[in-house]
Amino acid sequence: MGMLISMPELSTRLVSTWLKDYADVINENTNYLTDLDRQIGDADHGSNMSRGMAAVAALDPTTFPDAPALLKKTGMTLVSTVGGASGPLYGTFFLRLGTSLPATGVLDAAMWAAAMKAGLDGIVARGKASLGDKTLVDCLSTAVDAAQKAADAGKSFAEALAAASKGADEGRDATVDMIARRGRASYLGERSKGHLDPGAASMAMLIDSAARTLA
Amino acid sequence: MKKLINAVEDVVRDSLVGVAAAHPGSLAVDLENRIVARADAPVSGKVGLISGGGSGHEPMHSGYVGAGMLDAACCGEIFTSPVPDQMMAAARAVDGGAGILQIVKNYTGDVMNFDMAAEMVSAETGSRIESVLVADDVAVQDSLYTAGRRGVGLTVLMEKILGAAAEEKQDIDALLSLAKRVNDGGRSYGVALTSCIVPAAGKPTFDLAEDEIELGIGIHGEPGRRKARLGSAAEVAGELVEPILADRDFTGAPVIAMLNGMGGTPLIEQYLVYGEVARILSGKGVTVARTLVGNHITSLEMAGCSLTLLNADDDLLRLWDAPVNTPGLRWGC
To answer: May I ask which residue range the UniProt record assigns to the signal sequence (chain A) (predicted)?
Structure first.
């Protein structure tokens, strides 16, 4: 099955690789995300995420005892630097990942699906958005479902990550046709249709980055 | 983009350096946490009044810090809500032992960050901390299917009235019930003639043709209810008054009226529009008891204006008239 090589050890180094990759992706897409936000929001999503992830990328992974500690610090750093709606939402996501994952051990599909689900639940509790509101929840919850389905089918960690990534992209793209019911885009009502939600776009980037770096 | 800035990422900080330089002795500026507080804070036995939000709406909020209004303001990035660390620093700075009240505009990001701050402050200090949500914009349907009405112009009136009551050492429960009266009796509506340019974005937030206006705007350049052709000032005044009166009956009690400039409309046009508004209101049987005209809650250099009406009584008018000494509002002292 090749299970051993596809189940990496949970470590600060591994998580740090993911976070730094995501910081790079956000940096490359700052203008794209801000432009998406300009169309239906207030033109700051790219610059906000970029500021937050630059602070996260500057964290030294060797100063944390384990991966969950680094994930929690990532959450606090985002809460403290991003602002807007994204700060509390992404911050909560990483805090929940940090409290859900064990300190050490081998990452498997079920563990990852459960951690992502905990992150999603935290975001929903904080932002009170549900499926179909045209927010990052639409991206994340499709990704979580895909990861869970893979885990239930006995797929490998790498396969669950890939499934989550595919689900995230589908969830992101589905926001185009939705009418926003949360966040600033909700003030546009019908006029929000036809635009990709910027939060769903940055969330898909995070999950795609995980698939690229954690497997 | 043509702006008087040093670097895009330093706009808020550099501006606060200027606030500190301009108001020594009356305002204390914490550059690290980006908060502006009364120099005499904390005032013992007084509820600490905190507000804040994205920068770019000056004089709101940092310009409303001082005797008779806010104890501290938290300044976020341009049009981005501040982070909980800032509200926590503000709470520590203004806690006079009578509790802390946060005045929050109903925008998703503001609500979440102030909520987190409240959780963290009460966990850390045990101090009582409450929040008031301003939601006065009639352009937004208040339903389960939106984020609810935005907090816009009424925020200025809320800060003035609660500030006066806090200065009288009214307790936090009294302030909460006062805030409810202000929220229930206040409505706003705004119109944009141009977009503004957020420095970090570098280009206009939305596009409007030369002869077009956007009706029902918020305060961040976010698009409004609909576009229309720019008519005369009298017609625009009618467009401002109509949705407010359609939403709430303002006859039968005195009204506090604010005609607010969005940042790029000169006072001569604001007064001109207010003259038309006053005429329309009088024709509809609405009695204006107090008026405020000027740039009070702005959107950078956006051209346009907003109208706020607040149904008042003798008590609210007394609090409105009470002395206030801040960079943005000053009377009676």
So the answer is: none
